[in-house]
Amino acid sequence: YPRWHTSETQLSEFNLTETEAMLGSYTKVLFVRDPFQRLISTFLKGMSSSPSFSSFVQEVLDSGQHNTSTAWKPLVSLCQPCLIQYDYVVMFGFLRQELGHLLQRAGLPRDSLLPKFSDTQVQRTYSWLSEQMFSELSLQQKQQLSHFYRWDLVAFPFPSSFLSD
């Protein structure tokens, strides 16, 4: 199946039989991140012209789930975890531990290929930042965001997410 290996080919271009065969022949890894942290990251990267985080969140909410950017679109709609049986789900915040396990399973040296990063430090920074950004939002925005990302919050364990409350 030579067209399987072209970078321009999208999964949606294959028929059901080809899709099932292809997905069955690959190790499927899904990287997930707390949706609120994804919003913060997108805002901080300057992917919005909004002057404040609160106005950026309002833009996201006003865009709706179907017309929204992939940068903040709910993961469930992007990755189809109910339809695709992923072999691994890797949570942001546990990258070093989980990537080491993946490398070991692939028969590669566990630590030699991993970048140097500290999950604990990243988690503390995002916890503080999340708290600050969350406090900028109105009660209505908080409730709407929880509703916007409700399926991500059900599908993936984000116990410390501000949107889970």
UniProtKB/TrEMBL annotation:
Pfam families per UniProt: Sulfotransfer_2
Protein topology in the membrane: Single-pass type II membrane protein
Chief localization: Golgi
Keywords: Carbohydrate metabolism, Glycoprotein, Golgi apparatus, Membrane, Signal-anchor, Transferase, Transmembrane, Transmembrane helix
InterPro entries: Carb_sulfotrans_8-10, Sulfotransferase
Top enzyme category: transferase
GO molecular function annotations of the record: sulfotransferase activity
Biological processes annotated in GO: carbohydrate biosynthetic process; dermatan sulfate proteoglycan metabolic process
Protein localization: Golgi apparatus membrane
EC number(s) recorded for this UniProt protein: 2.8.2.-
A GO cellular component entry from the record: Golgi membrane
Similarity remark: Belongs to the sulfotransferase 2 family.
Name the UniProt record assigns to this protein: Carbohydrate sulfotransferase
Gene: Chst9_0
